[in-house]
Amino acid sequence: MLAQLSKNIFLYASQSKVLNQAAKKWGLRFGASQVVAGETIESAIKKVRELNEKGLVCTLDHLGEFVSSREEALEATQYNIRTLEAIYRAGVHSNLSVKLTQLGLDIDFDFCLNNMRQIVETAKQYNNFVRIDMEDSGHCQATLDLLHELRRTYDNVGTVIQAYLYRAEQDVKDLKGVSLRLVKGAYKEPPEVAFQDKQQIDENYMNIIRLHLLSGSYTAIATHDHHIIEKVKKFAEENNISRDQFEFQMLYGFRTDMQQQLAKEGYTMRVYVPFGNDWFGYFMRRLAERPQNVAFALKGFFGK
């Protein structure tokens, strides 16, 4: 019960615009520097290069969400384009992850779609890939609708499906052939739309992983759960699924020992590397996911 209370507090804080604005002035505090790779593109590229040297690939995420003005959304669009350009110039191995609410989804669908077209077109020019992060359930359908529009023209864009949503299985079936990152889910969702029980979420998570792998689609398994990872390894081996068809993903600053071990074993291991001054919501959600994360983040250590 105490753990659930702690989780609710962190999730509530993650959605506070007042605290988010204040955090931009604080700079990286409360251990956030252990899980956020600095506030600038330059600092993020430096971290990506260090990770690449350890055999890890990356995806960069310029933090920010729930933008309410067109000006902010246009600035975020250009910042993401500059990030893609910086990745190319530096010659590092990294994709780009984006949140649609940062790019104007709450303002106007077509406006956001146009911003995304610019980003995905830039990525195509640099032979790169863009992952659309999934946000809360209220944005799920709009995100998938926008992805569908983009994929009429581009094949270098995919999204994320959250296993705790009841709709996850059908969405995975509908997205056969699309590169998906599969996650358990990190937002506070009501029982009307999402499983609340951990065991049910874990079971559905493995279910959608199996579905997407067996469909021949590229699958990114994003988890720190070593039990899930071992099950995926075994399932892939038993079903002759090539390691070229899937990858593991983990968050920057978490389970670094396991990240390097997976890379040494020959699996593609991609690190989700967030950066920027709008870090507070992301950091609060990480602390909410597991009570242990509080201590681990503050110590810059996870997994032992």
Q: How would you summarize the topology of this molecule?
A:
Elements: H1 2-14, H2 17-26, H3 41-52, E1 57-62, H4 70-90, E2 94-98, H5 109-125, E3 130-132, H6 140-150, E4 157-162, H7 168-174, E5 180-183, H8 198-214, E6 219-222, H9 226-238, E7 246-251, H10 256-264, E8 269-275, H11 280-289, H12 292-299
Parallel strand pairs: 1-2, 1-8, 2-3, 3-4, 4-5, 5-6, 6-7, 7-8
Cofactor: FAD
EC number: 1.5.5.2
Domain Proline dehydrogenase: 44-295
Helix-strand string:
HHHEHEHEHEHEHEHEHEHH
Round the mean pLDDT to the nearest integer and report it.
88
* CA(first)-CA(last) distance: 24 Å
Q: State the domain count.
A: 1
Binding site for FAD: 134, 162, 184-186, 198, 223-224
InterPro entries: FAD-linked_oxidoreductase-like, PRODH_bac_arc, Proline_DH_dom, Proline_oxidase
Protein name: proline dehydrogenase
Keywords: FAD, Flavoprotein, Nucleotide-binding, Oxidoreductase, Proline metabolism
Summary tags:
single chain, 304 residues, alpha/beta, TIM Barrel, eight-stranded parallel beta barrel, 12 helices, 8 strands, globular, disordered C terminus
